[in-house]
Design brief:
Length: about 575
């Protein structure tokens, strides 16, 4: 496959691996003061799945470091990623360096795309808005990161309805929205509810009491002997299928349709046979197409007006090209269902998080700079309070739910590999599990308060869709040692094959205290406790891999107990 080359390309491919893992520190928790009753009526159903408090994160900090911090806890958990990265248009946004040289822009985007891919579910998708300055280069780069076979479509969003005659040569009217799947074989898109344009194609030309209908050609491309027969119109004309085609049904089925008034021959009764498709009997949905006119998805002026109403005049200077809520609504309607997890690592004015919340989706938004606190935070506070701008009335939003405001903290590991003193059991457990299994640790699937992390099988015939309770990453300074509940879910029951390995972590005195006899050191007494615990697990015959600060047992005893020991922090490579 052809690849894109640029200055520092080789270094860009290793940037993500060099980024340190950092803690996420909770700054504040925000909830609606009073949870209002859902709005009555059909629109209310779209927001009926209200999001919880711990499910949603607003993170302030560099998005590359924030994505790396999320990886141990959300790898393979995100259903939909929407990002609106800087377009490299030389317009010098105040809060973005949008005047990057071309190679720098590519080097900035590549590691972020690599981490975003790791966060996607197997049936997930990523949507990226971009214009012609970098759009075609971005397409080639995403082919390499996500796989050319996972490219789905390039949508064209009409961002303006005003022709600019002061343009140098051509007045631009659209942006691209590139869509890639994590795995094209598993991703599917929801159908769109038919809009006014689709509805208008249904008419009632013959005053049929069943209402409006759409004329469907009665012939098909395949030639089959039992589908080729003469049809006599009401006016007496004898019809045969067009050359190289046949009728779409058998003669018996045609006669049933004719008797039921479902075949139309034109106003004079002598036209080509057409089959009636009644509006009331149709699914009233359509597959999405790649042209998104402003009437359906909003434009730049609408987005600017929304930002101004929610955030005041100051937002206009900071967010010069925000995206309208209706554009994000279109993406999330197609790509997600209530309860799915949405991620935007270029959150900007907070539109993606706001729309996801109103639609009953869980969300994570990442934004750097002080405007994360001065603009994104108050906008999302207004959302949970029930603000009625944007799509609120369309989806029946009346407020509710909550979110956590987070900032990036200290590195989990220092340059020498030592573990930061603020790290708790659940955080290190997530790193150990990711390192050993390449997947996200599900704290709710194991007994809390024990060193048992779970049993992993080499050949899992399913994709994980479970996630870790945010208590384990957002309350690092609270002293909580392990979560007892999970905010995620498992959509597919596992079918397990292979020998499997059971993982145990001796850290933070998980067995009761920090003395060698019952703490972080593997002694005879601790081993006996682990083996007793292991006997109660779903796979008591599986070998044990134990992480601890030291081991007081010899190699023969470990072999006898079917135990492999690894040292903390030296064998924890996730740094």
């Amino acid at each position: 496959m052809p690849t894109l080359d640029w200055l520092n390309r080789a270094s860009a491919f290793t940037t993500a691996a060099r980024v340190p893992y950092r803690l996420l520190e909770q700054v504040s928790v925000h909830t609606a003061p009073v949870r209002p009753e859902p709005v009555e009526g059909p629109a209310a159903s779209t927001s009926s799945a209200r999001t919880g408090i711990t499910d949603n994160l607003l993170i302030q900090g560099d998005n590359l470091e924030a994505l790396k911090a999320l990886l141990p806890f959300y790898r393979g958990q995100v259903k939909c990623i929407f990002i609106d990265p800087p377009y490299n248009t030389k317009s010098a946004f105040e809060h973005y360096d949008d005047n990057l040289e071309h190679a720098q822009w590519l080097s900035m985007m590549l590691p972020r795309l690599q981490l975003l891919r790791e966060l996607l579910r197997e049936d997930g998708s990523i949507w990226v808005t971009i214009d012609d300055n970098e759009g075609h280069y971005l397409k080639v780069m995403m082919d390499e990161v996500f796989g050319r076979g996972n490219f789905v479509a390039s949508f064209q969003w009409q961002k303006t309805l005003t022709r600019r005659n002061d343009a140098k040569v051509v007045s631009e009217a659209h942006d691209h929205v590139l869509l890639y799947a994590r795995n094209s074989g598993q991703m599917g898109l929801n159908r769109q509810v038919s809009g006014e344009r689709q509805r208008a194609t249904y008419t009632n030309r013959d005053k049929d009491p069943r209402g409006d209908w759409l004329a469907i050609p009665f012939h098909a491309p395949n030639i089959r002997p039992n589908l080729t027969y003469p049809i006599t119109t009401p006016g007496g004309r004898v019809l045969m299928p067009p050359t190289g085609r046949c009728w779409s049904t058998t003669k018996e089925k045609y006669e049933e349709l004719l008797a039921d008034g479902r075949v139309y021959f034109g106003r004079d009764g002598n036209g080509m046979a057409q089959r009636k498709k009644f509006w009331l009997e149709s699914a009233q949905t359509v597959v999405p197409w790649t042209w998104w006119p402003y009437e359906e998805t909003g434009d730049n002026r609408e987005a600017t007006r929304e930002a101004k109403e929610l955030l005041g005049e100051s937002a206009i200077g900071i967010f010069s090209t925000p995206k309208p809520e209706r554009l994000i609504l279109r993406v999330l309607e197609l790509a997600t269902n209530p309860g799915d997890l949405i991620l935007d690592s270029f959150l900007g004015s907070g539109t993606t998080a706001a729309v996801a919340h109103k639609m009953g989706r869980r969300w994570i938004g990442i934004e750097m700079g002080e405007h994360a606190a001065t603009h994104c935070l108050p906008r999302l506070q207004k959302v949970i309070a029930g603000e009625q701008g944007g799509i609120s009335q369309a989806v029946g939003w009346a407020g509710g739910g909550g979110f956590r405001f987070m900032r990036l903290g200290a590195p989990v590991f220092d340059a020498s590999g030592r573990i930061h003193p603020d790290v708790r059991f659940a955080t290190l457990a997530a790193f150990v599990w990711q390192q050993e299994t390449g997947s996200t640790w599900n704290a709710a699937a194991v007994q809390p308060g024990t060193p048992y992390l779970g049993t992993h099988y080499e050949f899992d015939s399913y994709s994980r869709t479970d996630s870790l309770d945010l208590e384990s990453i957002s309350l690092e300074k609270s002293g909580a040692e392990s979560p007892s509940t999970s905010s995620g879910r498992t959509d597919v029951e596992p079918v397990l094959t292979g020998a499997g390995t059971a993982y145990y972590l001796l850290f933070n005195g998980i067995l009761g205290d920090k003395r060698p006899a019952s703490g972080n050191v593997l002694t005879r007494e601790v081993l006996a406790a682990l083996l007793a615990l292991h006997a109660t697990t779903p796979a008591p015959a599986a070998p044990l891999l134990v992480y601890g600060e030291a081991c007081r047992l010899g190699a023969e005893r470990l072999k006898q107990a079917n135990v492999t020991f690894k040292h903390i922090p030296y064998d924890v490579r996730a740094r």
